[in-house]
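Let's study a protein:

___
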Amino acid sequence: MESIFHEKQEGSLCAQHCLNNLLQGEYFSPVELSSIARQLDEEERMRMAEGGVTSEDYRTFLQPSGNMDDSGFFSIQVISNALKVWGLELILFNSPEYQRLRIDPINEKSFICNYKEHWFTVRKLGKQWFNLNSLLTGPELISDTYLALFLAQLQQEGYSIFVVKGDLPDCEADQLLQMIRVQQMHRPKLIGEELAQLKEQRIQKTDLQRVLEANDGSGMLDEDEEDLQRALALSRQDIDMEDEEADLRRAIQLSMQGSSRNVCQEIPQTSGTHLTSEELRKRREAYFEKQQQQQQQDPPAQLSHPCEKPTTSSGALGSDPAGDAMSEEDMLQAAVTMSLEIVRNNFKTEGKK
């Protein structure tokens, strides 16, 4: 495909692109085509003057040229005269005279198509046909089986089709494609389609920016908002767990108050009872005072330790049946364990409420 000469559209110079794509080179410029157009205008003016320079037809002819305009458009007469330089001739494809010849389009070499002042070339290079429309981003491969259908479609859309008769100048693409065949995976787009796609992308980008600005720059879509809600819910759960652990630690600290005095305090049965930390502390202080009074009344020899080992079956601190004294560390550990049980029961009771 790289070896195929293909001029893309510039302004309204489609006639120039059509000729150069047909001949496969920069053979004509706007200046040269304008010169041909002016020559045609002069010849036509001289013929019209033969009927009298004062006639209505002559005054009408003196209006702006019909062979070119300021936009770059050139008439079929300009194109036909330009091809005569190369010994080429144009024949109307859909004329009754040509249709009677019953020539298969595949046996021709090239076509020039026109619709609403737009010109483009369809040419055979090597053994394959190509649409060399200057409005395309590149040459478009046309299969042999599709060629007749393609031309019929153009006729149905109102195109005028001309068959180019004569020997076209040699070109590199024709020689190369005589030896190899090319394949085209994607059809080239129209230049207008490509520009429209770029414009649509810019519009979409602008709309997205407006949405982001409307969201105060957060730019969160629905999925992002759902993720944020889930994250906040998990965060609240973590905070609740941290608060619960903090309450538990505070309860343990309260339960340990008074243990530094090397005494054990009574922990009553709490099944079905909800005690606050303050109430627990007051009960321990009362039990401590009671123990002090008993020590003053009983002989010192009967005590093996200032405090007695707790029994887990009753939940209270009492004397050990075996008579073994309990160390201060063991007693402190037992008090902490029982305090944790009380706190857990309190949390469970509050949860049921």
